[in-house]
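Sample entry (184 residues):
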Amino acid sequence: MTVIVLAAGLSTRMGRNKLLLPCRGKSIIRSTVESILEYTERITVVTGFESDLIIKELSGLSITAVHADNYKKGQKESTLCGVEHTDDDFAVIPGDLPLITAEDFTGTEKMLLSHSISRAYHEGIPGHPVMFRREHREKLLSYPGTLKEYLASHDTGIYEGGIGCTFDIDTPERYSELLSRYEH
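Predicted structure, serialized as tokens:
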């Protein structure tokens, strides 16, 4: 299983690069990737906006970095860039989930035993990781619609994960909540 970490976005709702903000003594992106490393060392980080800063922030970690030339077109383009660089089963996760755990990955992966796509949820809210068997690679790369539409048109196994599956950091308010509730 390769985990594709989306770290290419512009962070427009945050007003600055959210992935570089501090969280529990390190950056949000480093916290996220270190949690994934407890699950697997097969990690592809898709960069775009401020890619040099993201790569520098992840120095010393066992990752593969790829640059999404079309990152300004949105998350689908960055996701497809990551999918292009894998040839096995894969998971997709945004880089701003610093509370995600290895258990969220192993639980979601177990759902692939009976489904070709699986997704973590928390209290009924869809989250990450979203995992795909490799048979979806070419289908995703040629799919004309959104990733949300693709998921809706396929049987997806559901794993009830922890708060880290859905606690992304998109706004200053959400970042403040992270610091006040989870900094310690």
